[in-house]
Amino acid sequence: MEAIQQFALASGIAIGGGLLGAAVSAILLRRAQARQAHRLAAEVAAGNLPPAVAAPSLAPLLDALSQRIALMQQARDELDAQRRQLSADMVRQMQQTDGAMRAKDRFLSAISHDLRQPLQTMDLALAQLRREPLPAQARELVQLDAGMRTLAEVLDGLALLSQLDAGALQAHASACELEQAFASALAAQADAARRAGVSLHAHAGGHAVFTDPRLLGSLLERLLDNAIKASPGGARVLLAARRHGTQVRLEVRDGGVGIAPIHQPRVFDEFFQVGNPERDHRKGFGLGLPIVSRLAALLGTRVELRSRLHAGTCFWLALPRASVLQRPPRAVLLDRDPGHRDALAAMLRSWGYAVQAESAVDAACTHLAGGNGGLDAVLCAIDADDDPAWGLVRAAAAQQAQAARIVLCASPGPGLLELAARHGAQALSRPPAPAKLRSLLAQRPLPQSMRGAA
Known about the structure:
The protein is of the alpha/beta class.
């Protein structure tokens, strides 16, 4: 019995030892396989497979993985090459586009400088002819006048669009009374409205806004010009302002046929026109609203529109509300002719200006020195290149840079026009047309391309 027990114990120990050894062997084998798998994974990840694999059953799988990795590497290399090529193409196209834009800006700047001066000379000569009895060629004179105005309008619009795109203009915000801004805009478009048989109306509501008065004036003139062209004879165009919380909403409403929804997203695109397939220049050139859009962006706002077919169109923008200015605009007038001086001073006062009218340069310069940076306009009658009155123009440029500088010439020639431009002044024939004068006063010292509607 004891022998049987000893045999059973020995057998149990042997079996237990065998099982323990098997377990240890299994654990060691699994660890070895795990280490081998990790090494193989590292080789696969690195893309460097060993020529022989210890586990034959893994060889087909690893071969497939190796081929897959090779294909992926090839595809990645091809994508990298395509990306480099596309990047190079994009850089080249951007350089070409940038060069084309600079060339366009140089071209527009050149035509602005080279063509605007002779155009202005011809315009002033035509103004002089219009004051004389009409000759037998009156019809040809009228056609020449219309052609001149059309050409000047296109050049001014293109030049201004180029300046806005190039960032050459800066906004200088101040409190701006809408009563005066609206009156100036309506005066600038009065002749166009009369020719079209359209009546202009304004309601400023006593509001003032914080913005650049010059840029706002140019924007409103173009919106009015667009409304006049869109309205049939006998229609009514309204320029109005309404308070909306801390802002004032400016609206221009026309009496036209309206704009179809499909066309509304494109009305601010250059040269796009609704209802003008024949490109009749009397309906504009498709530059006015693109300029309006850029001017609004420069003023920190945007122009919106609301339109229905056969119910007209309303363009509107919102500007920050400001307190109404307490002082009237101030002007200095120099003219040795008492009749002209008194008549022009009376007209300026009827527009709300406080006018200092003088016949001597020294006296007029005294008012410049005492303006304390607050003059709004300096008007000077000049008849020759060596006229002493140029001293007032130079002093105004140095001491009152924010003021409009306007040279009034009885018989302007190229020399006078060049001198005026050199001193940052605008030239008008004497006596000046009220609408033109009021438009220049509203704009103040901006480039000439800011005048008129495109």
